[in-house]
Amino acid sequence: MALNDKKVSKPKKVARKSRDLNKDSDYKLELANSIAKNSKKVVNTYAHIENSVVYFFRWISSIIDKFMFNAKFSKYTSLLLAIVLYIAVSTEGKSTGLLANSSGLELDNIPVQVIVNTDAYEVSGLPETVTAMIIGDASDVQLVKSQTSYKVTADLSGLTEGTHQVKLSPVDFSNRLSISLNPSNVVVTIRKKTTEKFKLTSEYVNVNKMDKIYALETAPVLSTTEVLVKASQDTIDQIAYVKALIDVTGVKQNFETTAPIVAYNQQGQMLDVDIFPETVTASVSVTTPMKEVPIKVKPIGELPNGMAIESINLDHSTVQVYAPNSVLSTLDEIVVELDATKITKNSNWTYSLTLPSGVNSFSITKVNIDVKIAESMSRTVDGVVVRYKNNAAGYKLNLVDSRDAMLSVTVTGTEKNIKNITADDINLYIDLADITPGTNQDLPIVIEGKVGLVNYAIADGRTSLAVSVVE
After folding, report:
1. What pTM was computed for the model?
2. What are the CA-CA distances from residue 187 to residues 70, 123, 156, 173, 368 (Å)?
3. Which segments of the chain have a pLDDT < 70?
4. Which residue segments constitute the domains of the chain, with CATH numbers given?
């Protein structure tokens, strides 16, 4: 029985051992899963920390960009950097005993030179000048004050078409100096140039610097009437006209000159473009067109106290008028308006001659007027014939009242001026220049008298006549 008992108990021990191995395997699997899960958490934690650090530095970088490259804050940034540099230099000076030799200087309007192939490319967005804050040894700073060769460059070599941010670099400054530029970085646009042909016109400049008795021909003779303009397509599209600028300062006779050529936009602003040729030869004719015309005095208003003008005498009865021929052809007299309401006695007046539109100058600028007055009176002149003028259309005219063919005219003035006036000295007419056919039309009467300083009026007070116009 003992032997049988031993044989039966051995399998139980093996089964127990097998269960222990299975339990150990499950434990190891659970441990591996736990380690994997914790490893993933660690990786995620590190990734989150890494993203946070990257985001933080990007945020800091955007703030720096905003203050460094924004035009609104650039001056403050430059000032802050200059202060920092100055403190650094001052601190070093204290430690080395050189503080007394440190100095600062601000330079304005330093020209910016661009390094680029200007024959092929057009650059926009680049400032003409910049400001520099300079800090360094007093002797070096003093040397900068005395020199004039320093400049700032923008090196665009190697850049292609498009928009670029470019760093500006100071040139010809001592390397012992600390220099802060404002602006220090700029955004420029590079465009490729193209060429187009334009018609050339001309314009006279400094016309106010030539004697007004001279006149210029409106169309000078140019050695060429077409030019080539080279610029970016955007700039060429802005060109409104291209002109040769002819300087006429002090000219008195025909002349030939070399005139620069410029291009303008629609607002009259000069454009920065390449023009071929850059200049043109212009031949200009200078003339002295002049015409001598009488000076007529026209009294305005009535004299007070029942008086009238008996005579008017001038120290100059004619004047030489200088103007273009087109103006002279329409000018027959120069009228001086005399305010009659202020004349109470025999008197002498001085009047300035007013230049009519288009007239350059007169041979005289003032005229003296001697006025004599006397008592005013009136008389009636009968039998003045009514006539017609400017009947270019050949209309037939019939007076509605045939008795209006002859009218009486009242003349008013001094006895000396009116006593000898007859019907032949008075011209009554109806102007038909703008007339249209029709019956019973009231047309104004025009009265002209050969004797001056006399007022003329229809005796019955009418100013028009009833007329029928037939084609």
Report:
1. 0.51
2. 11, 10, 11, 24, 69
3. 1-101
4. 74-183 (2.170.120.30), 193-287 (2.170.120.40), 290-374 (2.170.120.40), 377-470 (2.170.120.30)
